[in-house]
Amino acid sequence: MPDASAASLSSRPLPQEGGRRDGGLEIGNTDDGNRKVAIIGGGPAGMALALALHQQGINSDIFDARTRGAAKNDKRILALSYGTRQILERLGVWNGIPATAIDAIHISQRGRLGRTRLTARAEGVPALGYVLNAGDLAAALDTAVAQAGIPYQEKRKVGVGDTAQYALTAWAEGVVADDAATVRDYDQLAVLCTATTHEPHHHTAWERFTPDGPLALLPYGIDKGNQYAVVFTCSTADATQLAAQGDADFLARLQNQFGTRLTFTAVGPRISYALGLRYRENIVAERQVWIGNAAQTLHPVAGQGFNLALRDIWDLAQALGDPACAGDPGNATALANYVACRRLDRHATIRFTDGLTRLFSNDFPPLAHARGAALLALDLLPPLRSFVARRMMFGARAW
Ligand SMILES: Cc1cc2nc3c(=O)[nH]c(=O)nc-3n(C[C@H](O)[C@H](O)[C@H](O)COP(=O)(O)OP(=O)(O)OC[C@H]3O[C@@H](n4cnc5c(N)ncnc54)[C@H](O)[C@@H]3O)c2cc1C
Q1: How far is the CA of 44 from the centre of ligand 1 (A)?
Q2: Cβ(213)–Cβ(278) under 8 Å?
Q3: Cα angle at 296 between 313 and 318, to 5 degrees?
Q4: Residue 40 β-bridge partners
Q5: Residue 193 belongs to a domain
Q6: Angle 332-360/305-320 helices, nearest 10 degrees?
Q7: Sheet holding 288-290, edge to edge
Q8: How far is the C-alpha of 187 from the C-alpha of 222, rounded, in Å?
Q9: Number of domains in the chain
């Protein structure tokens, strides 16, 4: 939970005249008396929620501790599912974001038998997913928020109790900062970079499981068609050595980790992220809801973090837009409906991501054989393969 700081709303005068104005900031109510939603955090999740609420005719104010536009500098490269593209299209932010389509995903484990390939063609969709810059996504969301006229207060760190005048406070502050959260430390770090290969990528993504953790290669950029975004997972102990390595050594390490199906010729600058699982059991409380990374922070192994967040956000906006809670988007019934509707997908996605990480990040022989058998079964059974593909694209409710 964020703490109230010197810059927080609570440090400013309490709103006067029914909670309308505070130093020029309109808070709590709209001019026609309808109560608003306060969104704490103007990252991708917060901005997407504001847009989804706007489509439901619900007004919100976004508050972010950072300078507006800071998220545009996010250097990460994301894999978003086809289902996420559909939601972003409905929010009016998809067109114009440079994105590379993923037509196929090749899944295997290093040094062991078993592999499978998921394809867009088999699933009857234009692409399984898309690879794009997190900064470009943030920029598109920011533009749409501005065009919709949604108030965005930058450099406003908001704490508990600061937003009591709102119908609902949506915490989108990016971290599960709650003592009651469930936490799992994988003792892994993700090293992110781009890599160039001798071969063209042909819009194929590679997910390779190794005892050190998963290695993902995402087709990136359309210029020459031979670049990948790399998510290289390693143990925390290994990370210090990796950080100190020069490009040539890292290139050799990447090649060794991946195998011989591609030949790497160059790597770009590396950035690293600590990995873990943190999630809140309860994503709503009285007139409060938690979304995005504030609700759950997942291992990026299957690229599910923002995909799950966006499905949550879409369903939350539908629940709050129910005519039964007109004028009060913090209504307890609407929040209970939201929780019920998200339970299956949320828990299944958390379990799927966690299970994948733990099952595939070790070299215990019986497990390695079981994994090989599972990959073989996936390869031989198209309905099972389709189940996994659709699950990754649309979440657990696709079935
Ligand atoms: C290495 C890595 C790779 C990933 N890859 C993928 C992927 O391929 N596909 C995918 O779907 N997801 C992926 N994710 C997950 C994805 O990045 C997150 O789901 C997404 O960034 C979450 O956005 P958010 O808005 O919840 O949080 P954030 O982006 O962290 O935004 C939180 C915002 O809240 C603000 N804030 C914090 N505290 C306060 C406060 N008290 N008051 C006001 N403002 C506050 C911050 O300034 C910030 O702007 C990945 C994550 C990692 C770490």
Answers
A1: 7
A2: no
A3: 15
A4: 63, 171
A5: no
A6: 170
A7: 152-153, 60-63, 37-40, 168-171, 288-290, 284-285
A8: 35
A9: 1
Assess if residue 259 is contained within a domain.
no
- Both tokens of 329, joined, read 């988007």
Helix 305-320 / helix 82-90 crossing angle, nearest 10 deg: 40
Question: Domain for residue 300, yes or no?
Answer: yes
Tens-digit pLDDT profile for residues 226-254: 999 999 888 888 887 887 789 999 999 99
Q: Report which DSSP code applies to 50.
A: H
**Between vectors from CA 354 to CA 352 and to CA 84, what angle results, nearest 5°?**
50
Distance between Cα 70 and ligand 1 center (Å): 12
The atom of ligand 1 lying closest to the CA of 44 is: 25
Q: Which of 67, 155, 173 to mutate to test the pocket of ligand 1 (most atoms within 8 A of CB)?
A: 173
pLDDT in tens, 179-215: 768 888 877 888 899 999 999 999 999 988 887 778 8
> 115 pairs with which residues across the strands?
108
Question: What's the whole-model pTM score?
Answer: 0.88
The torsion of the CA quartet 362, 344, 106, 265, rounded to 10 degrees, works out to -70
CA gap 44, 172 in Å, rounded: 9
The CATH number of whichever domain residue 42 belongs to comes to 3.50.50.60
